[in-house]
Amino acid sequence: MELAEFVRARLHEDEQAAVDGDEQRPERALRQVALGRRILADHARIALYRPEIIALYPDKPEMADDACCARCHILDPDHDYDEDRCEDLDWPCPELRLLAAIWNDHPDYQQQWQPE
Q1: Per the domain annotation, does 72 fall within a domain?
Q2: Closest Cα partner for 103 from 93, 90, 114?
Q3: C-alpha span between 85 and 73 (Å, rounded)
Q4: Cβ of 23: how many Cβ atoms within 10 Å?
Q5: How many folded domains does the chain comprise?
Q6: Which of 42, 89, 99, 102 is 20 to 30 A from 112 (CA-CA)?
Q7: Residues in the chain with pLDDT < 50?
């Protein structure tokens, strides 16, 4: 399971608990779910395919699959992307790691997702 899938599932569980009346403050829980989904969407994974790596390792195409965060590597207000900067940014980004840490006691939470 990847981090975004984990967060999506926890948000769904929280939403269901609020709708089913299992939360003391359902309106607040639903707002938190909506904001969590917005953060998740804003920090989506961008796949970067590196043709130069494919040329070097034709038998290992997975080596050319790299990723970074759609929001964290935006450099200017016009949302221009810079692949060179993306090389320095891992995905999941620090913001998604912080969001996921809310559920760090869940059995599906992976320690490699811990915020740094």
Answers
A1: yes
A2: 114
A3: 7
A4: 17
A5: 2
A6: 42
A7: 75-79, 81
